[in-house]
Amino acid sequence: MPPRKSTETKTLDTKGAKIGEPVPKAIIDTNTASVGIPRQAESDLHEDLSALRKQIDALQQRVATAARSAKENADDAMRQTQAAVKRHPVSTLVVVAAVCGAFALIFAGRRAEPPRRYRYRSALDELRDLYDSVRGRV
C-alpha cells in the first residue's frame, strides 16, 4: 500500500503512547520528513470503566430474566404434569409401565444377544460341520 500524501500539516506526537492507550499506526509526513503518531483524543478511563459496568449490569439483568423465565416454564410443566396425573391416574400408570417395560426389553435384548464375534464363530462352526458331513459322505 503506497504511503498517503497529506496536503494538510498535522502535528505529530513523537513520544510513545501512554500505558493503556491503543497504539495507532504511525504516519510518515513527507512534507516535514517526519514519522510519528497523530495526537489522539484524550480518553477518560473512569468513563470507559463506567460504560463497561453498565454493560455488565445489563447482561446480568438479561441472564437473571432468562433464568426466571426458565424456572417459570419448568414450574408450569411440573404443574401440568401433576394435573394430568391427578386427572388420569390409571392411564399414567399404564404409560409408566409401558415405558419401563420397553426399557427392560431393550436392556434384556442387549444382554441376551451374543457379541458379533460369537455369532460369526458359531456360523463358521456350522459351516465346518456341514463341510465335514459332506466330506464324510463322499
The general outline is: elongated
Low confidence ranges: none
What class would the helix/strand composition place it in?
A: mainly alpha
Distance between the first and last residues' Cα: 90 Å
Strand content: 5-15%
How many β strands by DSSP? 3
H/E element sequence: EEEHHH
* CA gyration radius, whole angstroms: 40 Å
Count of DSSP-assigned helices = 3
Question: How would you state the average pLDDT, rounded?
Answer: 78
Q: State the strand order across the main sheet.
A: 1-3-2
Helix content: 55-70%
User: Major sheet, described briefly?
Assistant: 3 strands, antiparallel
Write the layout of secondary structure elements.
Blueprint: E1 12-13, E2 27-29, E3 34-38, H1 45-87, H2 89-112, H3 116-137
Antiparallel strand pairs: 1-3, 2-3
What are its keywords?
138 residues; mainly alpha; three-stranded antiparallel β-sheet; 3 helices; 3 strands; 7% strand
Molecular structure report:
The protein is mostly helical and 138 residues long. The protein has 3 helices and 3 strands; from the N terminus they run βββααα. The chain has helices at residues 45-87, 89-112, 116-137, and strands spanning 12-13, 27-29, 34-38. A hairpin with a 4-residue loop joins strand 2 (27-29) and strand 3 (34-38). Helix 1 (45-87) crosses helix 2 (89-112). It is elongated. The chain starts with 11 loop residues before the first strand and ends with a helix. The mean pLDDT is 78.
